[in-house]
Design a protein that fits this description.
This protein is of the alpha/beta class. The chain has one domain (about 20-215, about 225-255): Spore Coat Polysaccharide Biosynthesis Protein SpsA, Chain A (Alpha-Beta Complex), CATH 3.90.550. It has helices at about 40-50, 90-100, 120-125, 160-165, 175-190, 225-230, 245-255, and strands at about 20-25, 60-65, 70, 80, 105-110, 115, 130-135, 135-140, 145-150, 160, 195, 205-210, 235-240. The strands form three sheets. It has a seven-stranded mixed β-sheet with strand order 4-2-1-5-10-7-11, sandwiched between helices. Strands 6-12-8-9 form a four-stranded mixed β-sheet. A hairpin with a 2-residue loop joins β8 and β9 (about 145-150). It starts with 20 loop residues before the first strand and ends in a 22-residue tail after the last helix.
Amino acid sequence: MTWQPHQRSTNEPPPPPLPLASCLLPTYNKFASSRYEDCTVLVEEAVESFLRQTYPNKELLLVNDCPVQTYECSAPGVTVINLPRRFRSLGEKLNFMIGISKGDLLFRWDDDDIQLPWRLQTQVDLLADWSYINVRGFWFDMQGQCKFETGTAYCQTAFRRELYVTLRGYTFMGVGEDMDFQSRAEKVDPDGFFRGSFTEHEAVGIYRWGTGSEHVSGYGDPGYEKMGETQIKPGHKVLQPRWRVNYVDKVKGVSSATTTAPPAPRAIAWPHHKVK
């Protein structure tokens, strides 16, 4: 047989498969409430953020536990689960979602925030070396006004499933489950806890307030219970994922630096740090 330059050598092993990234989008009562009008568009923008990710091996789990409200979505990689009863805490809801997810890499994906297209690729690369990611540096949008903040945003955390198993999941808390999880993660695997910072052009998402949506943390400690007391408008929505504006252009316009193109997918050797 004559060797052709484009042919792969039979002695060359195929590249390892890319790890599956499971994105966790919990939602509740986004149709309408006593304070706000229909906020379904926020959920659609969150789903669109997933669809725009450059990282190819991904799934999005959208779990809605608001009684008499249901969603459907036919977008690729998106699974919608509507439940007739509400979980007793957000921690229990997240544990359910992780229990049915398929990936070994887990990403919080809030229903009212924007994730920029390079988020998954950036954090997948970091998770090759670390077990838990919550970098300093994110975009903050208050009623449409966007600025860069140097703190941390728990809605953009990512971690390995093995760490989640070691920690035995989220604590059954309605508010603060994310801070509790991070505190325990840092204690059980301090060498695997990523403490880096992102610059304006590296930040992976936009944390939003004043969007016309309820924030559970806005009520303080009883926030989860307070959310459960809000008015529920029954109905069924077919999600049409879209961004109302180009959020990449929006942060570029605010940033003093030009947002770089997201990195190309690469083969990853797993893992470098072991969870204790």
